[in-house]
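Protein modeling request. Please complete all fields; requests missing the sequence field cannot be processed.
Requester role: graduate student
Desired output: 3D structure, token encoding
Chains: 1
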Amino acid sequence: MFERKILTKKYWKRAFRRKRDAIASRLFDTRLGRDILVNALGPRVKTMTVDCGDHVLSFSPADYIGRKVFRKGHFERDHVDRLLSVLRERGLLRKGTALLELGGNIGTQTCYFALSGAYDRIVSVEPDPRNFRLLAINIADNGLQGRVTAVNCAAGDREGQLDFYLNHKNHGKSSALRQGSTDEKISVPVRPVSDILLRAGIDPADIGLIWMDIEGYEPVACRSMNVLMSRKVPLYMEFTPAFYGEDQTRNFIVDLARYYSECLVFFEDGEQTMKVIELPTKGEQFDVLFLR
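Delivered output (292 residues):
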């Protein structure tokens, strides 16, 4: 009788666990469930890897971008698709060209561009050592070593070292500009774009697109891209007057207008073609594609 009670208890425990696990599996296979799960993970979990369908991505679950990837299966992949569509419609996609990606982060957009087949080579530049480690992993895990060159430095107007501030909540917000009192200051190497391309074995004449997301350091990086911009290589960037300040934004616009006359601006409420010199000097962040 005693043994029967033990066996019955074990049976119901196993049955309960199976039912519990089945319910949890269904819950965590939803976007809400994934949101609950990734936000509940403690600091012991440093890295996660997910199957995103046509590629895999490794990320830190403590990071904003990583949590987005886990919940949605991508991070702003639609921005890459939108940009490629615009370039294709305007006849600005050339076969055999290379992509220069400044601010590669963990390689989300790197993978999307590589999977699109739009560019033969990609040079992905990322100064944050935490992001760069994952960028290298994601390049290797997706078999992109032959097409993507990852460079662990910042892009600037000189070679040397640069104070860099790590954002611990959103690694994509780490920047050469201090944005929060809790940001951690480190030193990272900085190199001009011309030197980055030379070491990567890329002819500047082969660059077909510059994608830039470097959290306010864009004006400095652009000063080392005169050769590319004089050829009117399409330049896509996050443009943030709030970072630059009104005077620096105005000066930056004047500098850009020396190379480009027309741009396509992606506001939250839609797209707008405008003259570069007419770009807003105030306001929050928006994406802009400098065309010609």
